[in-house]
Amino acid sequence: MRLNNSTAIPAAVSQPRYARQHHGAGIVHLGLGAFHRGHQAWYTEAVLNRFGGNWRIIGVSLRSESVYQQLMPQDCLYTLEVRHGQQRQRQLIGALAEVLAAPAQPDKVIAALAQRATHVVTLTITEKGYCLSASSGELDSALPAVQHDLNNPAAPQTALGFLCAGLAARRAQDLPGLTIISCDNIANNGDKLRRAVLTFSQLIDPTLASWIDRHCRFPATMVDRIVPASTEADLDGLAAAVGYRDQAAVFTEAFVQWVIEDHFAGPVPPWNKVGAAFVADVAPFETMKLRLLNASHSAIAYFGMLTGAQTVDEVIAQPVMRRAISRLMAEAEPTLDLPPDFDVAAYRQQLLTRFDNSALGHRCQQIAMDGSQKLPNRIVPILQWQLNNDGAVTMTCAVLAAWCRYLLGLDERARPYTIDDPAADALAARLRESGGEPVKMTAIFLEHGGILPESIAADPRVARGIQHWLTDFGERGIIAALDN
Questions:
Q1: E strand map for 386-440
Q2: What pTM did the predictor assign?
Q3: pLDDT > 80? residue 168
């Protein structure tokens, strides 16, 4: 039986402690993927359970109708399963009030953003959803999707286009501005979203840009919870355990963290009373996560893809790989500016323990996606700091070399895999033409632009480091090369 409002829920699955129909929606979320359902929606569920309020969520799928098709037949209910080893803890989440498929329902999305009850917009749209230039970090107005939205503001395709259309409608009704919260792993995510929205709106209507700047707020955030993509095996296992079929179930770890800049345009849910933190400065926490957790994840993904490993725990179970990731963290640690009482050694050990969690099945291929967008935020700042301070660049160069090798599309046993990184297509084609020759590959990568700033690409230490690793990977294999 498919999960819905009339499903008999077993006692082992905790249920909402509030009457869903008595609580309206005050949040619109753009980018309704598994991470949002396992993170921000989970926090919002905790708020509703403890405090009630009109804080349910209208979720928007920006690119396809698949999430709409998963959730709407289930009355927007879904199961969240926390996994650690053999332990399982299950919770029914009722925070979603409605799901909209933006390609088919653009008018409804704009109306949701413009309605009086909406106070907050959250976003999980991945790096590429912000339409930023990799080199400048500013809005890339030449992108086809951006050009479409500039020419068709009433029928947008991008998150920026929908935000500006919704905010224009709010202004026309003389409604307050919104708190717009980026929940993506991007350095300075709030400021980058703000600049992108203001630049976009300036191109449409300078008076709208001025109104947004005065009335809206874009707090920075740091989010953390590992939420792998659900598989059919996951869904089958859940159905066998609980007796109902849930096509939108989410599987995650116990650890969860959300740090939000205390900078709001109006009312927001009391997330800080259910485990989130409202702080004056998110930057130290954001930098710590990007350079320790996210940088390590990227390294694990590319090392894993090249060796044929499927999941994070499979990679980290190998002592050589575990030591390599610890060495990468050691290069990252001096670049951080953390509070003096923060135990970074304990945090690093906690990360390794989380990576060890075999119950998650966090796939390397999922993490490897869109490296051209992720590496400039995760790896390049570590490399830049170490170069500026005459420090070690060994492991950051190893990750960049592994990414170049990954773009050839074959693991070290010549088995093909799919590369999902549209922004790297041109680079991948040129790297394949090199025949895998390390000197040529290094030159092609450093000449490419968009990943490394010119000052880093021109530094001979970087060229030597990447060429060394490409040579060693080719001659000895990934494991042997990293075992030094």
A1: none
A2: 0.82
A3: yes
